Amino acid sequence: MPEAQETVLEIDLKSLEHNYRFLRSKLRPETKFLSVVKAFAYGSDSEQVALKLQDLGTDYFAVAYVQEGVALRKAGITKPILVLHPQVINFETLIENNLEPSIYSFRILNEFVSALGRKETSKYPIHIKFNTGLNRLGFGEKDLNGLIQQLKHESALRVVSIFSHLAATEDPKETQFTKNQIALFEKISLEFCSKLELKPLKHILNTSGILNYAYAQYDMVRSGIGLYGYGNDPKFDSQLKPIATLKTIISQIHLLDPNESVGYNRAFISESARMSATLPIGHADGIGRQYGRGKTYVLVNQKLAPIIGNVCMDMIMIDVTGIPCKEGDEVILFGPQLSAHQVAVTANTISYELLTGISQRVKRIFVP
């Protein structure tokens, strides 16, 4: 791979394929696979990633909001797209682009039926979301009878799946809670399907669910973070490949005398003669101030160099004392050699936040 000459996010589509095939290998052949590509495909590039996954044979896509689904349709995605958190104001756009909404409350159900009426549309595919303990979105068990009665008389709708979301599949201390969620979903599913005489797809597993609770794969599974190379567990991380590498270069090197300061508010003071390097990336690019003041490291010529001082809007400074380097050399902020998980932990956050926070002003380049 060519060395960076500016700040770039390099996306390796071969690694994406590896991750997809690895996750598929954990499933029965007939189990469908839903690829989650919300938030610019976890900060990478939703259009290129989705096109690759469509070629690989994914069965479904999921996005958070309608505009994300519209972008996929414009990019040439023809597979079904589930919108996980649709907003009422976007329903007509959703219908026009053949997107499939998650229906998670009676308000959303009634508003969507009204939108279909205005469009004179019938048998429109929807997904019913049940809340089994995450307490974020979804119909509760107590809503089941009312929901069933309403759906019996709604010819405008066609329920293609029912699903729920697990709260802690990566946490071995919460195994019983997860099993209770799965059991509740099973109970709700049986009543819902028998009373409506339906056979929709059922799905509840996320990436960590696929890896830890494969017995509950039902008809389909959903994977987001796993596709991008992270399994929320070292034993799985070692079998996945991060698809994104954030690279930049050294803009300038400074020789610091003892007691010299670096950056805003003099947040770093050299105790001895040091050498600092300035990089063209900052909190406007997604590397927040929480990564500064010596907490986080970057890779310079295979050596770890700490970020010193306060992170600036467009620049960070690193301590390269004792590291052979020169202006123009490549620097890696995260990637296969220094995972986003490792970096995120230094700032007491998670890989999801770091990955999805990379600004759209950072140029994306693709390795086919």
Topology:
Layout: E1 8-12, H1 13-24, E2 32-36, H2 38-43, H3 46-56, E3 60-63, H4 66-75, E4 81-83, H5 91-96, E5 100-103, H6 106-119, E6 124-129, H7 144-152, E7 157-163, H8 175-196, E8 201-203, H9 207-212, E9 220-223, H10 234-237, E10 244-249, E11 252-256, E12 261-262, E13 268-269, E14 274-279, E15 297-300, E16 303-308, E17 316-319, E18 330-334, H11 340-346, H12 351-356, E19 363-367
Parallel strand pairs: 1-19, 2-3, 2-9, 3-4, 4-5, 5-6, 6-7, 7-8
Antiparallel strand pairs: 1-10, 10-18, 11-14, 12-13, 14-17, 15-16, 15-18, 16-17
Helix pairs in contact: 1-3, 3-4, 7-8
What keywords describe this structure?
single chain, 368 residues, alpha/beta, TIM Barrel, Lyase, Ornithine Decarboxylase, Chain A, domain 1, 9-stranded mixed beta sheet, 8-stranded parallel beta sheet, 12 helices, 31% helix, elongated
Descriptive account of the structure:
- The chain has 368 residues and is an alpha/beta fold.
- It has two domains: 31-228, Alanine racemase (TIM Barrel), CATH 3.20.20.10; 244-367, Beta Barrel (Lyase, Ornithine Decarboxylase, Chain A, domain 1), CATH 2.40.37.10.
- It has helices at 13-24, 38-43, 46-56, 66-75, 91-96, 106-119, 144-152, 175-196, 207-212, 234-237, 340-346, 351-356, and strands at 8-12, 32-36, 60-63, 81-83, 100-103, 124-129, 157-163, 201-203, 220-223, 244-249, 252-256, 261-262, 268-269, 274-279, 297-300, 303-308, 316-319, 330-334, 363-367.
- The longest helix has 22 residues, at 175-196.
- The protein is elongated and about 80 Å long.
